[in-house]
Structures are given as C-alpha cells and as structure tokens.
Amino acid sequence: xxxxxxxxxxxxxxxxxxxxxxxxxxxxxxxxxxxxxxxxxxxxxxxxxxxxxxxxxxxxxxxxxxxxxxxxxxxxxxxxxxxxxxxxxxxxxxxxxxxxxxxxxxxxxxxxxxxxxxxxxxxxxxxxxxxxxxxxxxxxxxxxxxxxxxxxxxxxxxxxxxxxxxxxxxxxxxxxxxxxxxxxxxxxxxxxxxxxxxxxxxxxxxxxxxxxxxxxxxxxxxxxxxxxxxxxx
Length: 233
What we know:
The chain starts with 5 loop residues before the first helix and ends in an 8-residue tail after the last helix. It has helices spanning 6-20, 32-39, 43-55, 76-93, 98-119, 122-130, 140-157, 161-167, 176-182, 185-203, 207-220, 222-225; strands spanning 59-62, 68-71. With 233 residues, the chain is mainly alpha-helical. The radius of gyration is 22 Å and the shape is elongated. Helix 6 packs antiparallel against helix 7 (140-157).
C-alpha cells in the first residue's frame, strides 16, 4: 500500500475544508506557523502543500503586511482552462473517441438550445449575430472562431452558468490541421445554414424547433467528426 506524502495529505485536508464550505472563498487560511503547529509538520512541508493548492487554483497567496494564503474566489476562466486541458489529454491519448465527443455534444447542446430559446436576451441575439461568418470569403481561423463563439453564446443564453462552463472545453480544442483537411467548403456552407436556422428559432423563442435544429446540426457534422475533427467545429 502506497502512503501519500505528508504535504499531499495536508493539502487534501485543506482541500476538503474548501470544497465542503468550512473554508469560504476569500477566507484567510491559518498562517504557516499555525499550520505547522496544527499538523505537526515542518515549514517546508506546509509550504509544499500550499504550493500544491495554489497550482490547483484553490488558494491564492499574497505578500505584505496583510498578506497570507486565502481561499480563491471561483474563476470560471481558470476552471474552464483546467477542464480543457483534461479533455485535451484524453483526446490526445485516444481515451476519448469522436463518437464519445458527439454523444456529449448532443447531451449538452440540444437542451442548451431549448433553454436559450426560452431565456435569451437582446444581448445574446446580438452576440449570435456577430458569430455569423461568410463560408465563401472568411478564412479558416475566422470560421473556427465564429463557430466556437456561436455555440458558447447559445450556452450562455441558456442562463445556466454551470452548463456554460462544461460546454467551454468542447470549443477550445481545435486541431487546425485536421479541420483544414476534413472541413471543405460544403461543410462550412452546411454549418452556416444550420447556425442561421438555429438563430432564427432562438430569436422566435421556439423551444422545440431550436432543440430539433441543434440535434440535426450535430448529426450533420458527424462525417467531419469521424475525420478527426473532434473540436472547434
């Protein structure tokens, strides 16, 4: 049986207190000497535990008279980046397949489209309009960027912040070479058509139509997904 290092055990204890709400965002942790006294560990071991928690974005450390280690405030950007890194590693290792990716997209994006149709605001409609692209004249970078922006805005329009966070990694993992190889002009014309139809349904607040169009869109891109276009389109 492998015994975890002492710094890791301490870090896990503090992490449990943070995740359970015993320690709240913005709350100061005990000082290093206090943690040494409480845990019976050396100062170097305590510092290693704090470094580990900091690398996990669970605490922030500030210097100065009023410094110390504090429980980090939730940061959607940092959490999204961590999720993206994890999903990227799974894709690179082959542990996640194109079919896996499509199934998750269907589970998330179809209900998200329905919620967006029910809850969207004027600002969401404006952002969706800005996410339109010209499949004949815009370059690949613009098309990939616009596609990601469109789907992230649909998720944001759902009004569910957790859904927006979970969807984000699906659109931050573009393999540009694979996209360029597989996604020829007819593909981008189909994406443009699907996006415009979905925008119309969301604008009309037609929940059933929005969900059906989102489902059809994912089915339409299946051939490209099987050509290793597993993200960004």
